[in-house]
Design brief:
Layout: H1 2-11, H2 14-23, E1 29-30, H3 31-38, H4 42-54, E2 58-63, E3 66-71, H5 77-98
Antiparallel strand pairs: 1-3, 2-3
Helix pairs in contact: 1-5, 2-4
């Protein structure tokens, strides 16, 4: 139960949720790309990515001076299902607003 609560708490913050939506494409993204797309500073993005890493949603890899993040391939299926449901809900809500 606590794992699900920690996950939902991490996803409740808009910047982290935006990062997860980007990373859910299955590709690896550098912090600079996430910063530019989401519109936040490097320090803010790094703090949010640390939270997502701590709850197990993402993994990182250092590439020279860059840190690259991706969806955690070892994320338990039930946690992945929660994230996918949240993303689907947001996409549906955006579709309703666009109509």
């Amino acid at each position: 139960m606590q794992v699900a609560l920690d996950l939902l708490s991490a996803l409740a913050e808009p910047t982290r949720l935006a990062a997860v939506r980007l990373l859910w494409d299955g590709r690896e993204h550098c912090v600079c790309e996430l910063m530019e797309t989401i519109g936040v500073t490097q320090s803010r993005m790094s703090r949010h990515m640390l939270v997502l890493k701590q709850v197990g949603v993402v993994t990182d890899r250092r590439d020279a001076q860059w840190v690259r993040y991706r969806r955690n391939p070892d994320l338990p299926p039930e946690q992945a299902a929660i994230i996918e449901a949240v993303i689907a809900s947001l996409d549906a809500a955006q579709g309703r607003r666009a109509a």
